[in-house]
Amino acid sequence: MPRPVVSTGSTAWKGDLLSGSGTTTLETSQLGTFDVSWKARSEEAAQGTTSPEELLGAAHATCYSMQFSNMLAENGTPPTSVDTSAAVTFNIAEGGITGIALTVTAKIDGIEDADFQRVAEEAKSSCPVSKALAGVDITLTAALA
């Protein structure tokens, strides 16, 4: 039986919300430390500064791509490539994260569009990150390359 895997990230914050800033670190992979700020979250992010929503978008796009590629292989139509983006909308006036728009383009030989769309939707609902974010409206636009 597979054992649970725990991945860790951390953030060090200095100052108050509006004028403070911090760094967030990908601890498990040790791939990097990134600057974070309220301005990057509530306004347009400056180059070099990230937000929880951007990190969440990257996580969701990765999880969806993995889930979709596995389900396509199980369908007998393994993909050549799967490219996914996740646009996470943050609106403080509406309580925070209000939606995620997944967009996927995949190159797959021998699949009909209807079957492609069915598997794409099933991957959206079964992706572990989608499940964790079930309280947020998640949309999907899927296209064959």
Automatic annotation (TrEMBL):
One of its GO terms (biological process) is response to oxidative stress. GO terms for molecular function: peroxidase activity. Pfam families: OsmC. InterPro entries: KH_dom-like_a/b (IPR015946), OsmC/Ohr_fam (IPR003718), OsmC/Ohrsf (IPR036102), OsmC_Ohr_Peroxiredoxin (IPR052707), Peroxiredoxin_OsmC (IPR019904). PANTHER family: OSMOTICALLY INDUCIBLE FAMILY PROTEIN. This is Peroxiredoxin. It comes from Brachybacterium vulturis. The lineage of its organism: Bacteria, Bacillati, Actinomycetota, Actinomycetes, Micrococcales.
